[in-house]
Design goal:
Layout (H helix, E strand, L loop, with lengths): L28 E17 L6 E18 L2 E2 L4 E10 L8 E13 L5 E5 L3 E6 L5 E11 L5 E18 L8 E7 L7 E9 L6 E4 L3 E3 L3 E7 L8 E3 L2 E2 L2 E2 L3 E3 L5 E6 L7 E9 L2 E10 L4 E4 L2 E2 L4 E7 L6 E8 L10 E7 L6 E6 L6 E9 L5 E8 L1
Parallel strand pairs: 3-11, 13-21, 23-29
Antiparallel strand pairs: 1-2, 1-10, 2-4, 4-8, 5-6, 5-7, 5-9, 9-10, 9-11, 12-14, 14-19, 15-18, 16-17, 16-20, 20-21, 22-24, 24-27, 25-26, 25-28, 28-29
Length: about 375
């Protein structure tokens, strides 16, 4: 009597389901293994009907190896290999003819959804329950993914169905369906990680903030860039200024901390990443750091004010504006303007002649033309 069950394999990745695909594309393999012990293992007769518990409270120490193609393109049919240890002798209560088994595996995959696999039937012929049941190698065909990403598989459920015909003549070959299942592990058991890439999707980058200060580190996540057989690197730019470099993996993904260039132009700027001729952009508002300014605190009218500053962009023009606070006597000046170029260290030095400067309290401001950095200080004219 044939065992009635569905051969459909369901592997949920977000909203995506495993469905038949048109083609299998070649890829490398991600292979991972884990050894573990499962507790409270039961043998259940006819789980879809009577659900009779034959034995309970056992433990199962075994191992699992997963051979998953990686990276694989979306919408391509893949075959996943599994290798398991054995179920101890005398776990099942009776011998079976025309026997076989199927393994059911449930994994966490980092999406918040489960990924479930039902392996192909493995024929046993006559099953002898006094011997260990060696599960060995088996596989699942026709697995297809519809979302790109890197997915870790952590085992969270494992059971084995053993079926066949009763060998007792009195039973007249009655069909028996046993399920060997254990409690789920408290924490999913890590086994392997695989990658899925989408060659048709536009590349994207995402930032973890909409605003950052020059020199600040922010999170960046790049996805769906052109995938290669060997990994490469990408150097994003912020407002046209190159930032730090990231490795791009075999599915065209990268992530990490983007260090905003020290002198990225202030205001809303474009962050751009270009890899293998494909670009993606995001917008961010850059806030300029403060520069430093030191001036003579007291100077006589007609004399020279010594101005020194730092933390400007090397080589940029720095505009100086001097303005008196409050009214000024007739015939005196209450404002001056000047400029200076920052040296290779971002420092400035300027002597400003205060010809006919009004007496009183003054304020001086400095602003870098490219960095947008500003600084201010005060002084008195007597």
């Amino acid at each position: 009597m044939p065992r009635l069950r569905s051969r459909a394999v369901v592997a949920a990745l977000g909203a995506g389901l495993v469905l038949p695909a048109l083609a299998t594309l070649p890829s490398q393999a991600a292979i991972g293994s884990a050894s573990f012990t499962l507790a409270d293992c039961d043998v259940i007769l006819n789980p879809a009907a009577e659900n009779q518990v034959v034995s309970s409270n056992g433990t199962w120490s075994t191992s699992l190896t997963v051979d998953h193609p990686s990276p694989v393109p979306v919408e391509s049919s893949q075959t996943i290999g599994f290798e398991l240890g054995e179920i101890p002798a005398n776990t099942f209560p009776e011998a079976l003819d025309n026997a076989g088994f199927v393994v059911y595996l449930e994994f966490e995959n980092g999406t918040g959804f489960s990924q479930n696999f039902e392996t192909e039937d493995v024929g046993l012929g006559t099953f002898d329950p006094t011997q260990p049941l060696v599960l060995g190698e088996t596989e699942v065909d026709g697995v297809t993914y519809f979302d790109s990403g890197r997915f870790p598989l952590g085992l969270k459920g494992l059971s084995v169905a053993v079926y066949g015909n009763d060998t007792d003549p009195a039973a007249e070959g009655a069909f028996r369906d046993y399920r060997y299942e254990c409690d789920r592990p408290t924490i999913a058991i890590p086994v392997v990680e695989f990658g899925v890439f989408d060659p048709t999707r536009d590349a994207t980058i995402t930032l973890d903030t909409f605003q950052a200060t020059q020199g600040q580190s922010i999170g960046i996540d790049g996805r769906d860039f052109a995938a290669l057989t060997t990994n490469g690197t990408v150097t994003p730019t912020v407002g046209g200024e190159p930032a730090n470099t990231f490795p791009v993996d075999d599915i065209g993904f990268f992530d990490g901390q983007l260090v905003v260039p020290e002198f990225a132009p202030p205001g809303q700027q474009e962050v751009r990443a270009t890899y293998q001729g494909e670009s993606a952009t995001a917008l961010i508002t850059i806030v300029a750091k403060k520069a430093q300014l030191v001036v003579t605190k007291a100077v006589k009218a007609g004399k020279t004010l010594a101005v020194n500053g730092s933390l400007f962009k090397p080589g940029e023009k720095v505009t100086l504006k001097l303005k008196k606070k409050g009214p000024a006597k007739k015939g005196t000046k209450k404002a001056f303007g000047s400029s200076v170029t920052a040296d290779a260290n971002g420092q400035i030095s300027k002597a400003v002649k205060l010809k006919k400067a009004a007496k009183g309290t003054w304020k001086i401001t400095a602003k870098g033309a490219e960095s947008g950095r500003t600084a201010a200080s005060g002084f008195k004219v007597s």
